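Worked Example 4.2. Consider the chain below.
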Amino acid sequence: MKTFVKSPRVAAVALAAMLAVAACGSDAATDAANGTAPAASDSATEPEGGAAVLEVSASLDVVGEPLPPLEDPNADAAVGLTAPVITGQQFDGTDITIGDETDGPTMLVFLAHWCPHCNDEIPEIVKLRDQGDLPDNLNIVGVSTAVVEDRENYPPSEWIVEKDWTWPVLADTIDAEAFQLYGGTGFPYTVILNSDGSVKARTSGSSSAAEIKDWIDAALRV
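Applying the procedure from the previous section yields the following structure tokens:
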């Protein structure tokens, strides 16, 4: 039986950014790893004329064990494992949970606002949405992670809207805990879960709309 545990602040955002260098190749990742780029604070901001917005969750509630790091998407040791159930917050402060049982498969897309490949990936997913090429029963949730205040496209709460992302978004912690708990090794990082929360497939890096569709279709056929 799963037990409830409180997620520890296991590493600084520099670690997540350093892991992402291979997939993202951004100077921001290098700077963060070297400690020259400040991470985002965990306080909420209040835009002019609007309600308070947060850019990272202060903490996560976690049930279950971390997934192993993604090494080979074609022979992924995590396939079939139960993903950790993580509850954090959306940008508006409301709670959101990933990894729990759902009414269909779920695609989690881990995105860093400063990552050029993430900025390439979102329009391709949006294209599939606009073309009606995403499965009707597929739940999609974004995870904004590895937030760095002085890098491109900050704050992520505004960036994600500008990119026309219309699905829910979990704001990861300063330490990018959700990314690490799901075994992320580069950005963008995508995980498909069964309705029972077990892992169907994981991949890292940007792809064209057609490639993303083929990957989703293959994962859901298994």
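Confidence is low (pLDDT under 50) at residues 1-22, 25-38. Helices lie at 13-19, 21-24, 27-33, 116-131, 156-162, 177-181, 209-221. Compare this with Example 4.1 before moving on.
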